[in-house]
Amino acid sequence: MSTSEPELQDTLAAYEKYLVDSGLSQLTITGYLGDMRQFASWLAGEGRPSPLVSTDEEIRRYCLQLVMAKAHPPATVNRRLQAIRKFFKYAVHTGLVDEDASSGIKLLPQPRSEGPRGLDGSEVERLLNAVRRGVPRFMRRDYAIVQLMLQTGIRVGELTRLKLCDISPSEDRGVLRVRGQEAAQGREIPLNSSARKALGAYLDERVGSANDHLFLSRRGEPLSVRSVQRLVNTYAQAAGLQDVSTYTLRQTYGQQMLRDTGDLSLVARLMGHKRLETAIKYILPGQVDLTEVAERSSLNVY
Description:
Elements: H1 5-21, H2 26-45, H3 56-68, H4 74-93, H5 121-132, H6 136-152, H7 156-161, E1 167-169, E2 174-178, E3 187-190, H8 193-205, H9 225-238, H10 246-261, H11 264-271, H12 276-279, H13 290-296
Helix pairs in contact: 1-2, 2-4, 3-4, 6-8, 6-10, 10-11
């Protein structure tokens, strides 16, 4: 037994009395204590003697580890986080700590039962075929737009702000540069062969305009977000696909990238997410096997 374990047991015993005095049911109290013992055990493995000295970073890593290595669904992770929050509320109230380390940590998004909507391979091909059958004047532009969203996961607002200097689609490699509001917020996304070919065909056709935006309307002005949303919806309907939007294309990229790489932190970076909690929305159960992801992903992301 470590020297810190008796102190931990004393802390949990006092916490249990606090929960009883709060009028909670025995079942709820048992759940809170069990969840805190699980957290304390994980902290011990990290070399931390007590939940009282844990940091917000450690709590985040614990929650992500539950998703990644333990394959727990968001509801279970949120229950554990709620237990930690309850403990810190007690610790602040009794003066054991000055600040609540859990206060800034958000609950994981919980999906609808069917999970997020991403396209499978056959649906992607149906959508691309619908674009190929579109108005010849805009076919190469629209095909490049749809392919770029499918192959890079770029947000529709980011896509409409792209300029010619933001892409470098060479034959054997290419990079898409997405600008952020600040220099540190920008990112680079590799362009695969499908995206490079689509962009190359479009750029060969796009000549004679002085506008430096990548995608232009028939009037030679930058495409609006609404225009891109409308064209994606139009082609999806032509392909016989329901509930497909620009958001769907972004989800499709995130889910496929995770299947290909198994690295959630990489997917988060490429998609421009600041936190892994946000990226998890794109890979919830029903779309990928979290157990497989856990075996292949890096958890050291903070």
